[in-house]
């Protein structure tokens, strides 16, 4: 269980450019919950995600992952619970290193128990087996530089590196914003498959309402720093496209 209790975030407090980004937001995420977050620009979606990741610390309120209070923990101290995919495919990986070395780095960073890190063929074979799940043929290119791959291929591999570790929550901040439609579809389908198979708790921010329909088992709508609608799987399933568009009016 991941819980945010009464989270408030004000940027530039006391300055002329003061902004209240989150107002008293409370949210509890159950294991295997795949939460989709939508809302107009500036409604606080990224701040909510950043507060969970630890890259933004709340002005007040409490964040717990399981029994652990992580409210004041910075991002680098949360990586054993939280994995993150950014909009920019270049952010998650080292372009000058091979696919295999990127997996080594990821495993070292997270001290994954599922894959023992090393220069041995055992590690290489384990990585190849993982990569073959993607169905992109990249298992035959593990010595190729990451920078030579397409944005979609890199996002898919970054997702895979995230689920190798013991992260309990996967944060996806518009992961397809920089991709062409075909690559975007591939990345979202890969994320969906991995979230189900690894029973991850996940949070996806998207501006694509069709994706908010198709993915996730819970949907929240943010407006002016608050959660103004919160639909469980059943309610989300009954939501019409027309209703969803009306929320933005
Ligand atoms: N680091 C920051 N410093 C100052 N203000 C910020 C900072 N980050 C966000 N804000 C402000 O907080 C408010 C919420 O921003 P946030 O990025 O969370 O919204 P969003 O819903 O993700 O928007 P978008 O859909 O445009 O990405 C905005 O008014 C934004 O300008």
TrEMBL record:
Residues 2-249 form the ABC transporter domain. PROSITE patterns: ABC_TRANSPORTER_1, ABC_TRANSPORTER_2. InterPro entries: AAA+_ATPase, ABC_transporter-like_ATP-bd, ABC_transporter-like_CS, ABC_transpr_LolD-like, P-loop_NTPase. Keywords: ATP-binding, Nucleotide-binding. It comes from the Bacteria. GO terms for cellular component: plasma membrane. GO terms for molecular function: ATP binding; ATP hydrolysis activity; transmembrane transporter activity. This is ATP-binding cassette domain-containing protein. It comes from Hufsiella ginkgonis.
